[in-house]
Specification:
- The structure is a single chain.
- The protein is an all-alpha fold.
- It is about 80% helix and about 0% strand.
């Protein structure tokens, strides 16, 4: 059986894997920053801030990640912002992922009894100091396991970037299948897509195990 196709396919998909990892890293960092910022604002007692936070979370959590990605990709040029597919993908997925992380952070903060804040205030701490030194250290234990789960979802969602022209792992796999189908009778689609599946599994499964471990460890 002729296996000459394996080398070129693996080489091209390796470059796609690099793009996937880079997009996933940037998306994770930006989504985390957005999520923690919005999530911390949920502790505000100002009415309009609470409404704005709730609207952001509800809107983007209620929209598929692909729709958000496509909206950002096609909307930015209409407001005079020119970006490449990678930048638009990172922004789109980060806005969507940030809403999910914000909800996780909000839930962790709300799970801490208000008596903790009252006790900190009674000791002379300001509202911000009570949040930072009394509430957040406790909330972080409840935040971490679902947060790791959200990172897994963001990495998986990076495969959607191929829709807007990013040559990521999935995009590079599809390109090689199309080339093989053009030059031969067998596109080898099944083994190539199996390779994509295994790579994503190898990246995401350890994070799933880490989330489970943290959940059991921090619960005790």
């Amino acid at each position: 059986m002729n296996q000459d196709w394996i080398g070129p396919v693996a080489s091209h998909m390796l470059s796609g894997l690099y793009v996937t990892l880079w997009v996933s890293l940037l998306t994770t960092l930006l989504a985390t920053a957005i999520g923690l910022f919005i999530g911390s604002l949920s502790a505000s007692t100002t009415k309009w801030v609470q409404v704005a936070v709730r609207l952001y979370i509800d809107i983007f959590r209620g929209v598929p990640s692909l729709i958000t990605l496509l909206f950002v990709f096609f909307a930015l040029p209409h407001v005079g912002i020119t970006t490449g597919p990678i930048t638009a993908s990172v922004l789109g997925l980060a806005v969507w992922g940030g809403a999910n992380i914000a909800e996780t952070a909000r839930g962790a903060l709300k799970s801490i009894s208000s008596r903790q804040t009252e006790a900190a205030r009674a000791l002379g701490l300001s509202k911000v100091e009570a949040l930072v030194f009394a509430v957040m250290p406790q909330a972080i234990r409840r935040f971490l396991p679902p947060y790791i789960g959200q990172l897994t979802v963001l990495i998986q969602a990076s495969a959607l970037t191929s829709v807007v022209g990013v040559t990521d792992l999935l995009g590079s796999a599809r390109q090689m299948i199309e080339r093989l189908a053009y030059v031969s009778t067998d596109a080898h689609a099944v083994p190539i897509y199996c390779g994509v599946l295994l790579v994503f599994f190898a990246i995401c499964y350890p994070l799933t195990l880490l989330a489970s471990y943290l959940e059991s460890k921090l619960r005790s």
